[in-house]
Write a structure and sequence with these properties.
homodimer, Tyrosyl-Transfer RNA Synthetase, elongated
Chain lengths: 338, 338
């Protein structure tokens, strides 16, 4: 995993195994992982414990998606030889570290966390926030620090979580012995958030507006044909709008021919290009991008033993590093008795 | 540890290693442990992780008291051959189980817990409650259930904690597969709470009103001579009050001659018995009870390697049982992947 004698910086990223991965994950995360995998010693967490914080009543869903999530990553080019895939629940040190970190954070600080606040509202928990859900910024700090990661790719909306991690780092280092480095968030420059096919909100696993990496050519084409464009653009001859038009948003992200795309946009705005034309172009563009991933997925799914082996070996590596971290932590806290 | 073929019920009890143990612990806990040790497979938790929830800034104090707490127990007759002493921080499964249990409890339920509420007020946390402190009823459920204890000796003020544990048991069993038995609290019949020597509040580790098991004869005698009696009883000839008189409260608990004590009380009430007389009687009674414990303590303190061995072996046993519990839990939750 190490590149000769040069020790690469450790980065941590991960996925909640709660459902199939979609184009939003592909552009927002997977492509960035592929970009980072040569420069960083990248750990990819399969966050089953975190997924359980709001799916405690449906562990079967989590179980089913452990393999799927890993397959999605690898199919997109996240190389298991360059990255360490590991399963959160199988690294008990993360729980251990979470418990110590919980003493360094106040309840009111957790409730104020903007990311948690937003998600509590989204999920409609009201007064019934599961304690585990409220504590997950602390678990997340433990995920990161257990493997001593110092770089975390994160969307803008995740920055408060990194801030919370660094508050814990500072508190721990001040109270005991300096043990952890501060963590740096890297906000990927690639398109941050992809809209859903309905144009109403961002693409979501369970919001019915996603194009999944596992979708067949037929399903992909159907979803594009039903995509939200410009409601005022009724006849091909009508002038059309580009802004808020999901087809053009996707073409901007995926089309490798910016000149051709620019010309198409001009024609569409002037009137004379039907929605079917732009949708067919998008189907072709997406099929070029997703087709190989789909074929990779199918092949990988045939070899689930191989995927399990990758997860097992990665988890072992994460456990070894985490065990050392916990020894350091307990020494710093003076609770290493024998 | 097992008595022939009869499997004893598992009981869990424990101490926070935050300071020297005193007479209140002796009558409230240790004597009860000695009574229970033949009938139960009793686990005695050295609760260092819990102690850290409100002592995160002073781990050295916790460390120093790990051995002391164990010595106090054994010196009082809690037999290491009949009981399993173990250190909380060295059983990582407790943290693991705590994390899963946190998903089964809401934040508002934790904040409403009467024991936590009282302690938050006592400690003057205001809005700055450490998250670990708020979560400790959940950790406590994990302590109990990790070793599959079904009996917990508890003071009246600890009953809400057992209720919380049983709510978690019910939720877990309903959501996944029935895995845990409900837990029964046993409220010891022995004197529940001993007043402090100042008569103002119950005896406390750090409230300056305790007689410690480690106190020398001289210190013991001094503390009794300064004890709160009856402020209206100025001359030996004055009639005295028994109620609220700490010397008589202690004599009621420790004096083995109820007839002689009854006569003394009558004389004291009538007038004609000085405080020095009753205090000298108490000194003798306490010295008879504590003297042997003090000598045991001194001897045990010489053999700290032996104490460490007891803790190490007990911790190994607790780890083995807990590892099995966690395997059962993960099977029930379907998160046993390989």
């Amino acid at each position: 995993m190490e590149n000769g004698t040069i020790k690469r910086k450790i980065a941590l990223t991960g996925d909640r195994p709660t459902g199939k991965m979609h184009l939003g994950h592909y552009v927002g995360s997977f492509k960035n992982r592929v970009k980072m995998q040569d420069d960083y010693d990248q750990f990819i967490l399969v966050a089953d414990v975190q997924a359980l914080t709001d799916n405690a009543d449906n562990p079967a869903k989590i179980r089913a998606n452990i393999l799927e999530t890993t397959i999605d990553n690898i199919a997109c080019g996240v190389d298991p030889h360059k990255n360490t895939f590991f399963i959160q629940s199988m690294v008990p040190e993360i729980a251990d570290l979470t418990i110590y970190f919980l003493n360094l954070v106040t309840v009111s600080r957790l409730i104020r966390n903007p990311t948690v606040k937003d998600e509590v509202n989204q999920k409609g928990y009201g007064q019934n926030i599961p304690a585990g859900f409220m504590c997950y910024p602390v678990s997340q700090a433990a995920d990161i620090l257990c493997v001593k990661a110092c770089v975390v790719p994160a969307g803008e909306d995740q920055l408060p979580m990194i801030e919370q991690t660094n508050e814990i780092v500072d508190k721990f280092n001040a109270l005991y012995t300096a043990t952890f480095p501060r963590v740096k968030a890297i906000v990927p420059r690639i398109a941050a958030r992809l809209s859903g096919t309905d144009g109403k909100s961002k693409m979501g696993k369970s919001t019915g507006n996603a194009i999944f990496l596992a979708d067949s050519s037929k399903v992909l084409a159907e979803k594009v044909m039903n995509m939200y464009t410009d409601p005022a653009h009724i006849h091909a001859t009508d002038p059309g709008h580009i802004e808020g038009n999901v087809v053009f948003e996707y073409l901007d992200v995926f089309d490798n021919d910016p000149k051709g795309l620019g010309e198409l946009k001009e024609k569409y705005k002037a009137g004379g290009v039907g929605d079917v034309v732009i949708k067919k172009r998008l189907i072709e563009v997406l099929e070029n991008e997703i087709g190989p991933i789909r074929r990779n997925r199918e092949e990988l799914a045939q070899n689930s033993d191989q995927i399990l082996k990758i997860l097992k070996e990665g988890t072992e590596r994460a456990c070894n590093i985490s065990a050392k971290t916990l020894r350091d932590v307990k020494t710093a806290m003076q609770i290493n008795y024998f």
